[in-house]
């Protein structure tokens, strides 16, 4: 698979615990890394409301605490 170029608009779906439907976010590809050792890309979310931003903050906080190597 090939990462989308920087600046590409994509839709990201997050599945917060306890929510019946996914949180769909319009996003822009912010960076791309494509080396033999590592590949991936990062996104910049385009929030529709403060509530949406708060849900994403909670989601990221919850998942970063349970990720290996997190402090």
Task: Tell me about this structure.
This protein is an alpha+beta fold and 71 residues long. The protein has one helix at 50-65; strands at residues 9-14, 23-34, 39-46. It has a 3-stranded antiparallel β-sheet. The longest helix has 16 residues, at 50-65. It is globular and about 35 Å long.
Beta-strand residue fraction? 35-45%
Helix content: 10-25%
Choose one word for the global shape.
Answer: globular
Major sheet description: 3 strands, antiparallel
Secondary-structure element order, as H and E? EEEH
The number of helical segments is 1
Instruction: Give unreliable regions as ranges.
Output: none
Calculate the mean pLDDT score and round it. 86
Ends distance: 31 Å
Using the CA coordinates, give the radius of gyration. Answer: 14 Å
Strand order of the largest sheet: 1-2-3
The total strand number stands at: 3
**Main structural class:** alpha+beta
Write the layout of secondary structure elements.
Blueprint: E1 9-14, E2 23-34, E3 39-46, H1 50-65
Antiparallel strand pairs: 1-2, 2-3
In short:
With 71 residues, the protein is α+β, with helices and mostly antiparallel strands. Helix content is 23%, strand content 37%.
Question: What are the salient characteristics of this protein?
Answer:
single chain, alpha+beta, 3-stranded antiparallel beta sheet, 3 strands, 37% strand
């Amino acid at each position: 698979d090939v990462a989308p170029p920087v600046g590409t608009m994509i839709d990201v779906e997050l599945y917060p615990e306890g929510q019946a439907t996914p949180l769909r976010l319009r996003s822009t590809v912010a960076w791309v890394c494509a080396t033999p050792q590592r590949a991936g890309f990062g996104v910049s979310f385009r929030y529709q409301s403060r509530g949406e931003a708060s849900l994403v903050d909670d989601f990221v906080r919850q998942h970063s605490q349970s990720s290996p190597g997190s402090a």
